[in-house]
Design goal:
The chain has about 70 residues and is of the alpha+beta class. The protein has one domain. About 25% of the residues lie in helices and about 20% in strands.
Length: about 70
């Protein structure tokens, strides 16, 4: 999810390693606002649920969703 200015607000990917993940570890991680942290991927359904949960949380924090 991106904001009106194009900045990423919420995202999940495995395109690059995250600081603190050991060599050879899974690269799955979550972007939330300016924070990046590891994400424990299990399946597509869980990933979609986590994504929409974070979208709702960020929108509530920004007063877009009540």
């Amino acid at each position: 999810m991106h904001g009106p200015d194009g900045a990423r607000l919420v995202g999940f990917d495995n395109a690059h390693p995250v600081a603190g993940q050991g060599r050879g570890a899974a690269k799955d991680h979550q972007h939330r606002l300016r924070t990046i942290r590891p994400y424990d991927y299990t399946d597509a359904g869980g990933l979609l649920a986590a994504f929409w949960q974070e979208v709702e949380s960020v929108m509530r924090e920004r007063g877009v969703w009540t």
